[in-house]
Structure formats: C-alpha cells, structure tokens
Amino acid sequence: MSTVKFSFSGESQGISRFVGKARDFQITIDQPPVSESIESNNPCPVEYTLASLGGCVNIVAHHIAQELNINLKSLKIKVDGNLNPNRFVNGDSSERAGFTDIDVQLDVESDASPELLDKWLTIVKDRCPVSDNLANQTKLAIAV
Amino acid sequence: MSTVKFSFSGESQGISRFVGKARDFQITIDQPPVSESIESNNPCPVEYTLASLGGCVNIVAHHIAQELNINLKSLKIKVDGNLNPNRFVNGDSSERAGFTDIDVQLDVESDASPELLDKWLTIVKDRCPVSDNLANQTKLAIAV
Predict the structure, then answer these.
(1) Does the reported pTM lie above 0.90?
(2) What is the 3-state secondary structure (H, E, C) of A22-38?
(3) ipTM of the complex
(4) What is the C-alpha separation between B8 and A57, in angstroms, rounded?
(5) Which of A30, A105, A108, A133 has the CB geometry, 3.0–4.6 Å to B98, for a possible disulfide?
(6) Is B86 helix (H, G, I), strand (E, B) or coil?
(7) Using the beta-carbon criterion (under 8 Å), do B138 and A33 form an inter-chain contact?
(8) Contacting residues of B for A48, CB less than 8 Å apart
(9) How many Cα atoms occupy the beta-carbon half-sphere of A69 within 13 Å?
(10) Inter-chain CB proximity A59 and B106 less than 8 Å
(11) What span, in angstroms and rounded, lies between the C-alpha atoms of B117 and B68?
C-alpha cells in the first residue's frame, strides 16, 4: 500500500470553539475544562487526542487478534493522561506543554492464554499508528 | 495550576467501531478509509489526532493573540498528515506505524505586522499541548 494523506480543516468560531471536517464528518472542539468561566459543550483538544489513541488501539487490537486467531469476546479501553496546563496558560517553560504520561488500560474478555495475550499486546503496541505518533517524535510544521 | 488528569473510556462495538466518553461527551470512532469493504460512518482514529491538533492550535492561537494584543479577525486551520498503512496492515517494519509528517497551515486575517505574527506563531508552537505530544516523545503505557 502506498502512503495515504489524511486531512482535517475548519474555522475558528471564537476563542476556543473550532468546527472542522475530516472527509464528510464534522468534529467540534471546545474549551478544556480548566476554566469555569467559558462554556464547554464538546470535548477539548487533548480529550480528542486520548480518544484517537483509544480508538486506534481498538482497531489494531482486533486486527492483530484476527492474525493470531484470538477471539475477543469483549474489549473495553480506558485512556488517561496527565497534563500540567502552566506552560499553555502562563508560559511556564519548566513544564512541558502536553501530556507527561499516557496510560491505556485494556479490559479484555477472551479464552486466549495469558502468554498469547502478551504476544498480542506487544504487536498491538508496535503497529498502532496513534501510539507511534504519541510515543515517538514526528516531524511537525506549523506555518501561516 | 496543578496537573490535570484527562480521561476517555468506552467499549469496542465491532472490529473497528468504538464508542467512548470524555466527561459527558460521546466520541465515536470508526474504520479508516483504507478498505471499502467496511462501512465508515465516523472519523477514524488518525483523523481525530489531526482534529485534536487543529483544535488545540486554535485555542492556543487565540490565547497568545490576547497576550500580544493581536486582533484575530478570522482563523482557518488545515491539518494534513501522511501515513503509510503497511506496518499496521501487514506488519512491515520498514515503515513507522504513524504519521511520518504533519503539516498545519493557518489562514489568518489580522492587522498585526508580519514580525508580530512570526513571534505569535513561535509562541503558539511552544505552548500548544497537542503539538508537543506529537512532535516529541511521551511516556506511553499500554497494559491488559
């Protein structure tokens, strides 16, 4: 398969609200829940980051389960991330801007052995696109 | 401000569909558009990654504009990312799993000078949480 280009584009609708589209699908992004003075009616950016990771782990988990003949009866995923807002809010350069750590917890129901589930999890980590982009460096350009 | 914990959790609803919540907000994630055999009714994981980046740049852009007394009359944002699906699909380890590069293009209407907009953009890049997590390494744990 050759390289695929993915896109998202839209327009600012105020200080924090942004409405854009990926293909025909609208995604609305709102204020993070760090200030009660601004209404928040949609997930904030970093919540979409965690959702993209959870959704990606789900797809890769099923794909690798098929390769290893694992029957996944059910799969629940919880993603947590810790972030100190001080660099964003106040320009405090002693903190990094983004999540310091992200934790993905899978709750899986399957007849597969613990050893096979370990192997499955190792491959999932290695082949998950969003995990790769969060765990490792990516060339990122921002321009006017 | 102290560290804030953000969370997203939900349940797999088939091979590719995942429905979860961040606070009270539902986010539904679907199949990437790489196979026509599976219906895709929602954005795919990596599209949410790009959306989280675009939405985060929007919020930080407005926040820094206020600090610098820049009046942003309008702001459009387009985010593109290139990804080779071979590692995910076939386990081809010669490719990385995620985006090789991500490009954020801002279309801004403002009376600010080009020099001030350059300064603004430099600070936006530095203080944007999602930009940080994509450009740099983050500690990521995935466990059953």
Answers:
(1) yes
(2) ECCEEEEECCCCCCCCC
(3) 0.96
(4) 13
(5) A133
(6) helix
(7) no
(8) 22, 27, 48-49, 51-52, 55
(9) 0
(10) no
(11) 9
